[in-house]
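Recall that a protein's primary structure is simply its ordered list of amino acids. Everything else, from secondary elements to tertiary packing, is in principle encoded there. The following example makes that idea concrete.
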Amino acid sequence: MRRTILICLISVVYLNHLPAQVSNPNKQKGQEALDKSVMSEAYWELWNPDVQAKIDRDIDQNRKADAVLQLKNLPKGSDVKVEQLSHDFIFGAHIFNFNQLGTKERNQKYKDLYGTLFNSATIAFYWKKFEMQPNRPRFREEYWDTEEYWNGVKEPKEEPRWRRPSSDQVVAFCESKGIRLHGHTIIWGNRKWQHPEWLYDQFCPADEKEKIGKLTKEELDKLTPGQIEALAPVFFKEMKRLFQKRVTELVNNYGGRLQSWDVVNESAVDFHGNSVTGDVVCKSSYGLMPGDYTYETFKLADKLFPKSVKLNINDYANNENYANQVKDLLAHGCRIDIMGSQMHLFNPQQCLDIAEGKLIESPQQVWDKMETISKAGLPIHLSEITITSPGSDDRGLNIQAVIARNLYRLWFSIKPMMGITWWNVVDDCGAPGEPSVSGLFTRNMGPKPSFYALDNLINHEWKTNLTIKADENGNVKFRGFKGRYRVSWKDKSGKEQHAEFYLKRDGDGI
C-alpha cells in the first residue's frame, strides 16, 4: 500500500511538472492536452521527480549561458526586448519526401516545418538511387523530381525515386530557409540500399563473381577483409576507384554548401583494433568492402572538403567497439568532427513496453550509452531517431508523444550532445521495414500529439524571449538558451535601435 501511494505521489508531482496543455500558435481547434495518464506507474517511477530535476539542472548548465549587454545612450530603467532567433542546438529531420506527398497543400505543410520546427535537414545522397546509371549522378532536377510529377503518381512507393529527390532542388530550398544542410551518406557498405546495381554487375569479373558466389555467408564471415579482397582483387580495385570518384564529384558540385556530411555510415560493427590494416578491422556486415574503407574515405574527404565542412561518422552501435574505432581513426590521423548515433524504436510493441515501465531507453540506459560513446571525445549527433505510435487511437498517439517529450528533454540535457534528428516526419513514408506510424504527422499532414510535444519544447520552453529593464549604466544581463538573438530598445532620443549577437558561452553579448 505504501509503495502504491508513493508511486501515485511521484506521478502527481511529475505530471504537474509537465505543461497542462501542449501549446502552439497554430494549434487546431479541439486539440487535446497531452494525456500523460497513458503511461503506467512503473514508467513514471523511472522518470521520477529526481530524474526530471537532474534533467532540468543539466539543461540549464549545458544549454544556457549568461549574456552581458552594454547598450550605449540608453536611459536608466529602459525596457530592452530580447528575442531568440535561432538555436545553437540542432533540431533536425530528414527531408527525403520533398515534393513527393501528392498535393501542393501537403507539400507546403511539409516544407514549412524546415526553418520553424527543424533548423537542420538531412539530404539523401544514397548512391544506389543517386547514380542509377554510371556517370549520371542526379544532382539536377528532372521531370520525375518535380511536384507536378509526384502529384500524379498513384503508387509513390513503387517509384524508384521515392524518398530520393534530386539533390540540387533540396539544397537550394534549404539555403533559402537559412537552415543547416547535412548530407547522408557518402560511403556505406550496404549493398541493398547503397551500392548501385551496376557496381557489382559491371566491375566484378566473371571469375571473381564465381569465386565469391561459391562461398556461403558463414564462410565469408570467417574470412578477414584481406582474404576477401584477395578473392576479387580487380573488383576491389575498381570499387576503391569509384569511391574516390564519388567523393570527388560531391565535393566538386557542392564544395562547402553543405555544413556536414555522414562520410561513412554504419561501419563499426566488427571493429577489432586497427583502422589502417584491412585484415583486422571493419569487415562490413552488409557486403563486400575493402577492410580500410572507413580510414581511406575519411582521409580523402579531409583532403578534398573545405575545413569548414564537418565530417561525421554515423552508426547504430552505442558500445565500446564504436568508441574504440573512432578513437583509433583519430589516432591514425583522420579528421572526424562529429560522432553520429542512432535510436530506432521500430517495433510498436517496444513503445507499449516502455509505457508499461520496461527497461527500454530508460534514463539510466540513455546516460550509460552516451557516456560510453562519449569516450571518443567528440560531439554527438543523435542522427536518426524513430519513436513509433503503438496505435492510431488516442492512447497510442499520446504514448508516442510522452516518450518523445521525455527522451528529447533527456537528450537535450546531455553535455556532448549537439543535435537530434527525427527520421520519418510523415506516417507511411519510411523505407520498407520501417514502421508506417512513426511520423509526427499523418500521411495527410495532420499533426499528431508528438508534433505538438516537440514544438512546445523547441519553440516555447527552450526559447528565451523576455523584456528586461536596463540598470543605471545601460547594462542588461540574462541567462538564456544558446543561439542567435535580436535585441531592441529605444535610445534617449526615442529612436528604435536593434542589434544581434550570438550567445555561445558566458559573457557573450554586445
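The longest helix spans residues 233-254. DSSP finds 18 helices and 15 strands in the chain.
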